[in-house]
Amino acid sequence: MVGHGHGAPYTIPKYTEFNIKGIPQLEELEKALAQKGLKDPWIRNEAWRYHPGFGTKLQRARKLFFRGLPLGLALTVATVAFDKLIGGEDHDHGHH
């Protein structure tokens, strides 16, 4: 679906753009399968994971777990500061 006359919001790459040649991990997998008499016709679907634009596994994991940390920390500080500023509810739980 095209919106506001700007064209598609993304382009879907053609399957022929993905090739395992030059990706050592996938080439090794292909050889190991061939030694067992097997072939994975869908192995090219894993090629995108090794594209430099997606980073290493560690970089992707770091991005996944820490993506919202700066915003969350800033909002926490702002909430605590606002609570202190307006004199918030007394949090002394010693009296019942």
TrEMBL record:
Subcellular localization(s) per the UniProt record: Mitochondrion inner membrane
Keywords, ordered alphabetically: Electron transport, Membrane, Mitochondrion, Mitochondrion inner membrane, Respiratory chain, Transmembrane, Transmembrane helix, Transport
Example of a GO cellular component annotation carried by this entry: mitochondrial inner membrane
Chief site of localization: mitochondrion
A Pfam family it matches: NDUF_B12
InterPro entries reported for this sequence: NDUFB3
Any single GO BP term: mitochondrial respiratory chain complex I assembly
Membrane topology qualifier: Single-pass membrane protein
Membership in a protein family: Belongs to the complex I NDUFB3 subunit family.
Function: Accessory subunit of the mitochondrial membrane respiratory chain NADH dehydrogenase (Complex I), that is believed not to be involved in catalysis. Complex I functions in the transfer of electrons from NADH to the respiratory chain. The immediate electron acceptor for the enzyme is believed to be ubiquinone.
Protein's name in the database: NADH dehydrogenase [ubiquinone] 1 beta subcomplex subunit 3
